[in-house]
User: What shape does this take?
Amino acid sequence: METLSHNETNMTIRRLDHVTILTTDTQKTVKFYVEVIGLTRGVRPNFAFPGAWLYCHDKPILHIIEKPIIPANCGIIDHIAFWGEGLQSYINKLNKSNISYELTQLPDEGCEYKAWQLFVLDPNGACIEINFSKNEEVFLIQSYNKSPK
Assistant: This one.
């Protein structure tokens, strides 16, 4: 077995940097993430291919790449998770936009972290999870529509 140097054994992942998704319609995808999820469009390097970078505060966390056709052999993303605030506002926005979603809460058993989890599909079929504090109040939940999963 190969021996690792001190620097190699102290490597640590600090945070999620960004997620890249593929789309055939950048405009529709950006609209969803800006209007529904609440990200903002920001500066993107001048790549030779179309796309967009979306920001949360000052961090470009979502990279969008447009392709004429999404390759069949492309890797799959199960879901993209964000931490949010304002659960009821998200529910109201989704209901008003007639966007299907699923709302669950982590069970008390075996986990002290009982967050709300809101799942919704983006226009490309990627599952988006938005986590909220267990202390968020939910006053009105219309029909959950149908589960996006």
